[in-house]
Amino acid sequence: MTKLTITDLAAETVELLPSRETLTLDTNLAGIWASNMSLAANVDTFFSHATSTAVQGILVVQS
């Protein structure tokens, strides 16, 4: 990345955007489904270690 100098900043220009004639109302609907699952087993053991495996998923449907 290059450094900006005062000369570079002074060379920048500004342009005004045209005025908007209408304002619109925009809606954006999205369906979101999320799931978290985990499984661990430690059956009939003493002084043992159990490990769990987890799966996460997110689905977003947007119209």
Give an overview of the whole structure.
The chain has 63 residues and is mainly beta. The chain has one helix at residues 6-11, and strands at 30-40, 52-62. A two-stranded antiparallel ribbon has the order 1-2.
Short description:
The chain has 63 residues and is mainly beta.
Strand order of the largest sheet: 1-2
Radius of gyration: 28 Å
Average pLDDT, all residues: 83
**DSSP strand content:** 25-35%
Would you tell me the structural class of the helices and strands?
A: mainly beta
The helicity comes to under 10%
Would you count the extended β strands for me? 2
Low-confidence stretches: none
N→C terminal distance: 38 Å
Morphology: elongated
How many helices does DSSP assign?
A: 1
Largest sheet: 2 strands, antiparallel
Q: How are helices and strands ordered from N to C? A: HEE
Secondary-structure map with pairings?
Layout: H1 6-11, E1 30-40, E2 52-62
Features:
mainly beta, 35% strand, 1 helix, 63 residues
